[in-house]
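Write out the bound-state structure for flavin-adenine dinucleotide.
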Amino acid sequence: MPENYDVVVAGAGFAGLACARQAARRGLSVLVLERQSAPGARIHTTGILVHEAWTEWKVPVPLVRRINRVRVYTPAHDHIELERNGYFFMATDTARLMRHLARETRRAGVEIRFGEGYRGATPGRSPLLLQGSGVTCRFLVGADGARSGVAGSFGLDRNRHLLKGVEWEFEPVDGVADCLHCFIDPEFAPGYIGWVVPGVATTQVGLALHRDRQADLPGFVAKLDPLFGLSRNRVVEKRGGVIPFGGLLRNFYGERVMLIGDAAGMVSPLTAGGIHHAWRFGKIAGDALADHLAGGAHPGPVVRRAYPSLTLKHAARWGYDRLPVARALEAGLLTRSVFRRVAAKVFFGL
Ligand SMILES: Cc1cc2nc3c(=O)[nH]c(=O)nc-3n(C[C@H](O)[C@H](O)[C@H](O)COP(=O)(O)OP(=O)(O)OC[C@H]3O[C@@H](n4cnc5c(N)ncnc54)[C@H](O)[C@@H]3O)c2cc1C
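---
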């Protein structure tokens, strides 16, 4: 006998859990399929929450560490420091945060099956029949990350513009303070930046760069040694992933299917932050789905209308990709005040 649900969500990441929880709160029966064996089993993000995310969610205080300032470095490690009154970021213990979110989602009435991935569906059928599970649903949500299998099986668009991100977690290092350290460095991070983050119980060091370039994290760590002495500390975890930066996909939904979060390209093209978008638009999608299954409009256009156009950020991303920002900085062509204004816009939206 098939098991019937109103909604099946593929992926128990930020987007999937937010969507599932909201849909269940609106009275739908919801199943989440997650291929990882347990929540937070494999983390592929630095996990920084922007201020807006922190104010919208109720994340338990022991799972976060406040970051008040941003320091942006040139390749020669000259830097400027940015601060905005009342604005802060939160580093997270992301594995514990995922466990917390999964618990909260179950508490809202959602069934989550870990260790059971989405393997395909029969698109023409109503309700949809999920391959290999005997589960049927009225609507399928693909929240299965930047390389979405749901997108593939339904012929939806897929992310083509991707950065590669790699990160090592060190035992906590002194001297990183409450500061997000960002490095403009075309040698180690062509196309994006490197970072050092004071995490909850670790220090996180990472690089994001063009997908076709080799990431040299040991080289980057060695270059940072005079600043932080990282090489004296043990690496406790290594992680990596891809980051879509091409913006919201054109065809991110079909008749009984919709992508959200990274799967749909919902990532800021400039900061590469996607957690807040995944959560916010996951929730909006959950609401729109409940309206739709009660006879309302398709949730796809509802989510598209709610999603910001980010035109300026895409233009700035284009410029950052093609203009020699680091060289201009080193040559003094970008004055500190111009650079400060641009950087404040990127990090604080000023
Ligand atoms: C190195 C790195 C650092 C980053 N740092 C930050 C940061 O500090 N702040 C920030 O805001 N953003 C950051 N991002 C981006 C952010 O991590 C993503 O935008 C965010 O995680 C997107 O959430 P999501 O739920 O859409 O996707 P994901 O978090 O990718 O979740 C997708 C889930 O789907 C599961 N899945 C995949 N395939 C299947 C399948 N077939 N069946 C079932 N389940 C499946 C995966 O296991 C995963 O649990 C970073 C990204 C990288 C790569």
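---
The longest helix spans residues 275-293.
The chain has a mean pLDDT of 91.
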